[in-house]
Write a structure and sequence with these properties.
The chain has 458 residues and is of the alpha/beta class. The chain is built from 18 helices and 15 strands. The longest helix is centred in the middle third of the chain and has 20 residues. The structure holds pyridoxal-5'-phosphate.
Length: 458
């Protein structure tokens, strides 16, 4: 280790934080399919989208052409509070695995929300404030997005209403308290406070909820209250755009030491951290300037990429949102109440879906207990207690490093460590007590849910 010049942590300085986001879509030959209006089957217009989303965010959502978009100064200033995020060379993990591979991770967990989600939350809150809105509504699964948005809304003095998936609300009471500390109003979903919540509860009494349900409720509240818009923490093009700061910083930090990843790995819930991490690398790949192996990791309990269908589907259970073309398990799919809370969405970013469909990236699914084994191994040597979601990427980074041990190849692996797991101790407790199980949906279950996809003439 002493002869190696690469430090344990590579920090950029403050003025190396990106001043522009990179829009991957500009370099895609086949653009992601547009959102469709479920009523007319036609692409959603900016006007239609602006009923639900802030105007500037609608423009970003529809922008397939501009490669670079300026980050407003206020957002850059906020980023300075917790960015640049360190890029860490996992020397201790490499040693523990006895691998010739070089392993790097980009650590996004060093802010109070504990994840990368703040990168987009602050941008979305900024544009809502700029538009003169009173507040925003949203859903949260594991709670990281709700926390990040609460922080961002507190900063800009916006009202924040969060619908939290019921299973997480019950498993993570302290998450709720952090959100309330930042001034948000938190409701477990499905709830009796919305029409769509009442309907879902009537159809599935006792349900532990899903992101799809919570999205429906949050959208209903935003569209029925003047001065409110809905914001989403993943899946959408605009969110991937904001998260490109992760990849831009990673690439710059690696370049300082002449390093170039062979394999880039990220966990995939709705695809925002992965889309952000890979953005500049995928850009090079799309332009034919470089090649990288890119791997999305998803839970075996909610395997959108690996077992889903590439088709138009609703983003929400209540079927009130636009249709997105993506790898989906069906909007009625409610994953088992396992612990990969932030990876429980039935669909996937349409940008990443198109790239996966075009063979530009790979996907694997991993089981929960093997994810926690990786989490524990990582925590013990690298010090950081990882979020269960992030640990999906750790699992595959370890697996790839072990393959290098067999073949003797000195590959460079970069993975996204999206957050910390301090609020996930119920899951860690189950794992430590040997009570964690793996749930893999059957083919019949998935077929039943996928058979209910909406019929769309493309
Ligand atoms: C939300 C979350 C994810 C998954 O969301 P993506 O949009 O797929 O990135 C992963 N890790 C953490 C820590 C999260 O909070």
């Amino acid at each position: 280790m002493s002869e190696n010049k690469i430090p344990y942590k590579i920090y950029l300085n403050e003025n190396e934080i990106p001043s522009q986001w990179y829009n991957l879509r500009a370099d895609m030959k086949v653009k992601p399919a547009p959102l469709l209006n479920p009523g007319t089957g036609k692409p959603m217009t900016a006007e239609e989208l602006s009923v639900v989303f802030c105007d500037e965010l609608v423009a970003q959502e529809l922008d397939n052409d501009n490669a670079y978009i300026d980050i407003p100064q206020e957002i850059q200033d906020f980023y300075k509070m917790y960015r640049p995020a360190p890029l860490v060379r996992a020397y201790f993990l490499e040693k523990a695995l006895d691998t010739p591979a070089k392993i790097y991770y980009k650590f996004e967990g060093s802010n109070t929300s504990g994840s990368h989600k703040l990168n987009s939350a602050i941008a979305q809150a900024y544009y809502a404030k700029k538009q003169g809105l009173k507040g925003v509504t949203t859903e949260t699964g594991a709670g990281q997005w709700g926390t990040a948005l609460s922080m961002a809304c507190a900063f800009f003095g916006l009202d924040c209403k969060v619908y939290m998936v019921k299973v997480s609300y019950e498993q993570k009471p302290f998450r709720r308290e952090v959100m309330r500390t930042y001034g948000a109003e938190v409701t477990p979903s499905p709830s009796m406070t919305t029409e769509v919540g009442k309907k879902i509860l009537a159809a599935h009494p006792g349900t532990t909820g899903s992101l799809g349900c919570a999205i429906s409720e949050a959208v209903e509240v935003a569209t029925s209250n003047p001065g409110y818009r809905y914001v989403l923490g993943s899946v959408l093009n605009q969110v991937l755009l904001h998260q490109s700061v992760i990849g831009l910083e990673s690439k710059l930090a690696l370049e300082k030491y002449g390093e170039k990843p062979d394999i880039i790995i990220g966990c995939a819930g709705g695809g925002s951290n992965l889309g952000g991490l890979i953005a500049p690398f995928m850009g090079e790949k799309l332009r034919g300037e470089a090649d990288y192996r890119i791997i999305a990791v998803e839970p075996a309990s909610c395997p959108s990429f690996t077992r889903g269908k590439f088709a138009y589907d609703f983003c929400d259970t209540g079927m009130i949102c636009p249709l997105a073309k993506m790898y989906t398990l069906g909007s009625g799919f409610i994953p088992s109440a396992n612990h990969a809370g932030g990876l429980r969405f039935h669909g996937m970013s349409s940008t990443l879906s198109q790239l996966y469909h075009d063979g530009m990236m790979e996907a694997v699914s991993v089981e929960q207990t093997s994810v926690f084994e990786a989490a524990e191994q990582f925590a013990r040597v690298e010090g950081i207690l990882p979020a269960p979601e992030s640990s999906h990427a750790i699992r595959v980074a370890i697996d790839e490093a072990l393959k290098c041990k067999e073949t003797g190849e000195e590959k460079t692996i970069l993975f996204g460590l999206t957050g910390t797991g301090y609020f996930d101790m119920t899951a860690y407790e189950k794992f430590n007590d040997g009570l964690m199980s793996d749930y893999i949906p059957t083919d019949e279950e998935l077929a039943a849910s996928i058979s209910k996809l909406p019929v769309v003439n493309e």
